[in-house]
Request: fold
Amino acid sequence: MPRNDYPQGAVNNAKRALKWADENGWGSCGTEVGKQRANQIASRENLSDETIKRTYSYLSRAAEHADVPYSEGCGGLMYDAWGGKAMLRWAAARVDEMNERNMDGAVRRALRSMTREHNQNNPDNKTTQVALGMMYQTLPGEPRERIRAIRSYLAGEPQEQQRKAQADGVQYRHAEMRAATDDLVVEGYAAVFNSTTDLGSFQERIAPGAFADVLDDDVRLLINHDGVPLARTSNGTLKLKEDEDGLYYRGVLSDTQAGRDLYTMIQRGDISQSSFAFTIGEESVDEDGVRVIEKVSRLIDVSPVTYPAYQAASVYARAEQKKEND
Reply:
């Protein structure tokens, strides 16, 4: 249910960030999504449940930047653009209400217990029941499988796998995907050419032709860059091609509980973003200081993700969009 009863402090934070940017410019700070969010909050527009979830996700991840002066980097400016500390507290409460509506008592007790145990053992890296509730809602599988996946996440197993991969040169970027009208088929663009993305410490774009040498790679469609493949190029269930817009893909998900759950969540909008993993073959820097990926040397996977590192294209159901456009 859309709502705009967030605190005045959040509105003031967004207005302050917009005023500073109007006087000094955004520079390399923020994405179009972040700037749009600042204008929504400053104008006290209604925010959908999905927007509230994304706002909580961003503010909770970026909390370390909350008190950074605007003149010392992008972190503090963009944190206030999203409503700052006042918005974080409000969004956390709203997400908790959403989780309560969609979970039974046994799941809530399990999440509460995991939160308490994790925070006792990791005082410098605490989580919240709200955050785990959001993760539970967007994971595929039966309740027991979701709880097991969250325990694995808290133990650092997927993160350790990604750290090892990054040490070998693997990088992760956002992608677009959508649920097609065919059952268990997802399709979209894993990367869009010449679209500059703000990655925080630098900006980046992908040049046309960057994927020409990796279209025959053995690429998997995973969830959160982890687990068993739900589609794969080597068996023909995942197709890749490069056109004038970017790297297009079409995947037929496995007819398993995980595949069916993922398809449903993309249709409903529960999972709203994805990313892809790759290694860089050739790169350059253009006249604006933007890093340009000229050649990808290895394409590893395309993955819908629960908590993306960067804001990017939304995941949506093509069938629903078609109805809206008719």
